Amino acid sequence: MLSKLRSRLLVASLATSLSWTAANCAVAQPPATADSSTPTQATTTQEQAADKTVDIGVSLEKLQSLADAAHQKFKDDTDGKNADYIPELAKIPSELFGVCIMTVNGDVITVGDVDYSFAIESVSKPFTLSMLLRDDGYEAVLEKIGVEPTGLPFNSVAAVELHKSAVNPLVNAGAMASVSMVDADSPKARFEKILSYFEEFADDDLTVIDSIYESEAATNWHNKGIAWLLDSYGKLYADPDEVCDVYTKQCSIGVTARQLATMGATLANGGQNPKSGKRLLPTDQVPKLLAIMLSCGFYDGSGQWACEAGLPSKTGVGGGIVSVVPGRFAIVGFSPPLDEHGNSVRAQNAIKYIAEELELSLFNGRN
Ligand code: DON
């Protein structure tokens, strides 16, 4: 109880040290009721009845109206296309589109398809990294994987060849190195450890989407090649085929935008889940994780994303993106069609729109 109070005070003092514009500075209000007349069936719910001590610098009504506006603005955008190198992903309805925001107080803003379970794919990577930061610490990640952006696509073999190492934990090579560092006696135990840690982040049960796993496992030769290449440089820390399989299973875990928003809000809340109150990552490791997400989360699009959104984020070819506004909330966008870097077009646009409207970039001097 005391530690919960202490962490709430810490986040509260972070939040009050900020000076937002008057328009965005309303104290968080009780949630608005859903307007059933809106075509997107927007809803605002309060999933945590706990004490609400953190001023997130914007009212829930304002957040809801921005989420609604973002959804309305981009729902008919037909740019991009579903990933098809994993055949099953090509079959997911392209029109799906959801936006979900969860605050550090546990308040939830939703619009659109926020309860559709999609493959987490690369959005899983920062959460496995979180386990390593908790168990092994930053120095071990730095030494065994690295924290530098590659400037290259997520599945680049050239980056591994150039550095004789994985380079960072958010590209496929580094994510497999991360999986290999998870302390477990068997591949089964390794996966179960990852899954149950993710469940703590989501504060919900999660399961593998079997059809996606089977589709990816049948076609993941490129990742197997990366795993063996890393192994040849002494930079993979368990059997390459087993690691690649556990990584593939990790990527096939199904999450909804609502569950992913809880996972992101845990990072926004300094490593403590706002719904369960459980601490999942020591506070001092959170800035390291967020820094890696900012510099590497969009692969070869990370610089542009830092300029245009300015938020630590992670994308996945399942169409999900999570962005973290430290001390305040997480924004999740989900929609399957991707741009040329493998990042959801509608989710990027929606998050960027909300970030611009609220001046959320970490570099604008107000955060
Ligand atoms: O390893 C892969 O190719 C997929 N399981 C994940 C790739 C991914 O999500 C890239 N992110 N945008």
* Mean pLDDT across every amino acid position: 88
Low-pLDDT stretches are 1-50
Percent of residues in helices comes to: 40-55%
Number of helical stretches of at least 4 residues: 14
Catalytic activity: L-glutamine + H2O = L-glutamate + NH4(+)
Organism: Allorhodopirellula solitaria
InterPro entries: Beta-lactam/transpept-like (IPR012338), Glutaminase (IPR015868)
Subunit structure: Homotetramer.
SSE diagram, text form:
Layout: H1 2-16, E1 43-46, H2 60-74, E2 98-103, E3 107-112, E4 118-119, H3 125-135, H4 138-144, H5 157-163, H6 172-181, H7 187-202, H8 210-217, H9 221-232, H10 240-251, E5 254-255, H11 257-268, H12 286-296, H13 302-308, E6 313-315, E7 320-325, E8 329-334, H14 345-357
Antiparallel strand pairs: 1-3, 2-3, 2-8, 4-5, 6-7, 7-8
Bound molecules: 6-diazenyl-5-OXO-L-norleucine (DON).
6-diazenyl-5-OXO-L-norleucine binds next to loops.
Structure description:
- The protein has 367 residues and is α+β, with helices and mostly antiparallel strands.
- 43% of the residues lie in helices and 10% in strands.
- It has 2 domains: 2-119 and 256-358, DD-peptidase/beta-lactamase superfamily (Beta-lactamase, 3-Layer(aba) Sandwich), CATH 3.40.710.10; 123-251, DD-peptidase/beta-lactamase superfamily (Beta-lactamase), CATH 3.40.710.
- It is built from 14 helices and 8 strands.
- The strands form 2 sheets. The protein has a 6-stranded antiparallel beta sheet with strand order 1-3-2-8-7-6, sandwiched between helices. The protein has a two-stranded antiparallel sheet with strand order 4-5.
- The radius of gyration is 19 Å and the shape is globular.
- The model is unreliable at 1-50 (pLDDT under 50).
